[in-house]
Amino acid sequence: MKFSKKEIKKIGIFRALQLGDLLCSIPAMRSLRAAYPNAKIYFIGLPETEAVIKRLSHYLDDFIPFPGYPGLPEQPFDEENFHCFLAKIQAINFDLILQMQGNSNLLNQLIKSFNTRYLAGFCRDRSDQNDCFLSYPDDGPEIQRQLSLVEHLGIPLSGDELEFPLFPADHQHLEQLRLPIGPGAYVCIHPGSKGSWKQWPSIYFACIANYCADLGFKVLLTGSLHEMQLVQHVADLMKTKPIICAGKTTLGSLAVLIKQAAAVISNATEISEIATALDTPSMYISMDKEPFRWGKSDQRLNRIIDWNSHPDFRIVHQEVVSLFGELQLFHKSV
Description:
Shape: elongated
Number of helices: 12
Number of strands: 12
């Protein structure tokens, strides 16, 4: 390894991105923890990801919310909080900061102000950085892109599996909703996504939901509170009445729903990744230009549809039929 266990006592991981991006970095976190079992590892990220970081306490010791920075689009810049943030970062005296967000020169200038012994991460031009930096890969799954940096640092890899730990409180919250469902007897349909341009048409979600209902499954429509209008639109287009869970679940209880579902169908990367992490069969309909970047596809029980390349509902329907056919074969074999 480029850095010995003896000299690395405090590590900071900088990745101030959304939930889907965070989940893809878990295999890299797992490798870091295995390589530096006695180090204190901090995660520096967006404030809204703190609840997820708490689920990863077996890899991460602390969380530092990032208040934004001029030129970074993920959140507005909070100048007052930034000065407090920078003072806190500098006072920790990190031995190693890993910039795992991207190839931005602006990011790398920012982390140079963190008062750390060693810097490593992604960059645009390696000639401008030390040999602990790596040009950000232009292709491949995001999980492998993150692991490429870990491997570049000589750290042994600890697998590429996703994880989403569940807490007793997650199960308790779901039980409090008193939904008329049983494990394996329903399908989760999640029509929402971070941007409206990423949303598959509601009528198509409704048609797939109708097919699931015809197979005898109950249909649960999931989403956040601000996606309620979209979820209701899908419900209105269906032939049968679904169970609407949008706005009722926490992230944790939603994950339990996903865990216990027969299958999950969505066009949201983070929902697809949670399904993969929890070993739930899924169909991810990708509306962006990098369909196979997010999550993992085993082509059997976790499928990905590249809608941009093949905008044909018949293809999606055929894949859904095939997926449920595989589910029947899978259940017969176990």
